[in-house]
């Protein structure tokens, strides 16, 4: 197959329909407004405003957006064409719902990606085969050859037939330059560097290997799951020919996508923001991180498009979060003080739908560690929905776009399903090729997340 990447050549609707038929999809939730939610400790006690929100929400709508983002577009690397395609899709939807929609552009650093194609169709094709390319290796080239495993880069064992092959080696940063030079001298056409396994539940991500200068062949860094699958295939076939292509993306512009509707309170209405980030890391389709928060935001935008509010509503999807909160920090820097003062609450949603069994806790994550209007509203929504006992927080944690707002004193928090022992206890597919709808998304958890944030945001926005 040639369509291993998210960069499918099929038409948008065709791709979505094809994916729907081919992929095992999570169960669509179907509980009535006053039914007890899955995993909830208590029966809900909703007010009429809550009912307005929960009766309008559709996790099927959200799923359709998620298929476009994580399956048709795939990895959405900040500033590259893939991220821009996602921005255009999201903006088109917000526009359709009647919001005043704009892209907010800002410059970001160069990126270096790679694509692995399996010439004989031996590797599993339900996985993303994007990897990172070394900026100091050969870029914008395609090479092909059988895989030769030389073991650890610190002490490689070279087979006789390296010429014309793609060398794989267990990566160590310090050993990279010598390993790559030796592989090239022996006639290898490319090098795939394999990361060390991380401690459970983490799995190593794909990476762009640093520390090389003008290597004469392409050098790429794969994810832990890709390493395992390549070695498993090598153990059972006598030849595993791969094709690897590298690409440099330079002079990049990333975008925030923001849809706004003026509140009934007029030009100085309070502002309520519901948001997530729509970019992902190299090699990760980003279904849960943060396709889930993106589609929560989009579906709430649809629901609120029919519900007037006193507050001005902003539905925002931040670009380049994964490179260090770049998009949200840029946005906050552009806000004049009177605009900042009008922000009543910013609800960030980063990883709100994992299907990982241990992620039974809904975390209220505050960069200051303190409660604010956003955490108070979600806690109160959790009481009404019957989720109060499963919620923990506010606890101190940054590392998502709420931090950018809290750094300048705006009430914000990040909301996320994670393991109960710690908000750092993330699912194994995190930042990996396995962050897919089939492997890492629960529509039930997504629905509950949408209900919590929708009812909380409405409580703040209507008052
Ligand atoms: Zn994220």
Automatic annotation (TrEMBL):
Name the record gives this protein: Peptidase M28-like protein
N-terminal signal peptide: 1-32
Keywords from the named record: Signal
Keyword Signal: yes
Residue intervals of the Peptidase M28 domain: 256-453
GO biological process: proteolysis
Species assigned in the record: Kribbella steppae
InterPro entries named among the record's database cross-references: M28_fam (IPR045175), Peptidase_M28 (IPR007484), TAT_signal (IPR006311)
Domain of life: Bacteria
GO molecular function: metalloexopeptidase activity
